From TrEMBL:
It comes from Gibberella intermedia. Belongs to the MBF1 family. The lineage of its organism: Eukaryota, Fungi, Dikarya, Ascomycota, Pezizomycotina. PANTHER family: SERINE/THREONINE-PROTEIN KINASE TOXIN HIPA (PTHR37419), SERINE_THREONINE-PROTEIN KINASE TOXIN HIPA (PTHR37419:SF1). This is Multiprotein-bridging factor 1. Gene3D superfamilies: 1.10.1070.20, lambda repressor-like DNA-binding domains. GO terms for molecular function: DNA binding; protein serine/threonine kinase activity. Keywords: Kinase, Transferase. Pfam families: Couple_hipA, HipA_C. GO terms for cellular component: cytosol.
Amino acid sequence: MRTNRLAMQYPIHTAAELGEAVLAVRKALGLRQDDTASAAGVGHVFLRDVERGKPTAQIGRILRVLDELGIKIYLDIPEDVLLKNNIVQKIPSAASTRSIAPMSPIVNKNRQLEVVLNNQVIGVLKEVSDIWEFDYSPEWLQDPRSFDLSPAIGRYQQQHLDGSTMRPVQWYFDNLLPEEGMRALLSKEMNVPKADAFGLLAVLGQESAGSLVLRVAGAQPLAQGSKPLALDQLSERIKRLPRASLSSEAPKRMSLAGAQHKMVVFFDKETGDLAEPLPGSASSHILKPDSQAEAYPHSVVNEAFTMKLAARLRLPVPEVHMIYAPEPVYIIDRFDRFRTEHEVEWQRKHVLDACQLLSLSSGNKYNDANVETLRELSDMCRSKASTKLLLYRWLVFNTLVGNSDAHLKNLSFLVTGDGIALAPFYDLLSTSVYVTPLYADSQAIWPREPLHPPIPGASVFDEVSKDKMLAAGEAIGIGVPAAKRILEEMVGRFESHADALIEEFLQGRHVHPASRAPSGMQQGSEAQMLRAIRYVVIATMVQKLR
């Protein structure tokens, strides 16, 4: 299970002990080795060697790994001791003469934040000696429109206090924060240790995933409205990634879950104008540029294409848009926002991702993603049967398009006083295209890429078959006739819809008219990406499921 603060001390005298410490902390945080390596900016092989106790001369890379995991160290060991005990092969001269101070340790304080929904205080979040507590406000408990924050934090009792091992309050609120490298970058900009989740919520809680605003008790009302964001300004921010976050100059800090760089905005679909919300206003859209990782190029056109394809296959998804600044940018309508025609300000809907709904730490988003969990999630919704059908369509679609990143934080649920309902799908893209020969060269593993979530009898895409996908439907709770009807309908229409959509993209009809013009090289590279998705990934999976 993932925790946000590890009170562990490791006496490190050898490279083997350093590796044991790194491995223990990474596993305690529920982090995958490849994700940790990517977030720290080191290679997967390097991190593997460190965890195996292999000596290295690359002190800077070790320090980045330690910082990513929140391990605080003091380097006051003499160089001769380090060399003698074979921790490193050679210490750079600067490292032996400078004083390397650790980040300030997290001081356990009595801290608290008001939790607000659409200007109504629904409770207070507290931290006392590293134990988190949430107390519902009496007004919220008496409100006939009220609802539970989550099933594990119900209104059946006013006070919810975490234990030493089961921490539903901490897990719930930690799930509001960004993950991996994005959290590390924001923590540096905010000068708050990455492991201090409560401190990060205090500075980033003005705009979280879903409905909640977290603020200091008694805080003055924040200014409402918006600030225009010109494409030139957006372009400059994108160019500074990943050294500075997209919101480093924004009037409002945001705490959106996930690992990608993103920012909250207003987007006028008619004019194409962008604006940033002032601190007291809720945003209406989320904006993402291309991934900064070299291994995942053209993520904007990938996600825009995949989401639009999902809509054509009758999956409920928000409307998505694409512009060039001239860098490509993906914009998605927020399904957790609403307003009437008479309202100026957007209001918030209460949303839980699947980890929050099941009271899991974010570190379990992959391990607990399976068809049995999809059935469990369906059974928690007020419309159980229709939810099972939708989740089966989602599973089939992800398999056909090659989305191996369909984890539990990529499913969300809307919560009202009437119950729980599945939210529109999001974060759909073909991850498998990045492990084809076009992008992975000699390291290509397609179609042996792992399935997330796996289905009965298949843990990689190459093992998928029609019978196994029908068995997955049964495991979710759908009868074979219904599962067969959905599967055959989607497989039969998939390629024709993909072909028509690719033609629209090649003609530029997916781009807002207010967009800047992309370069010819950009257009060519994106077209190559779409063809690889269609003729390598989709063609393979349609054949397997036919």
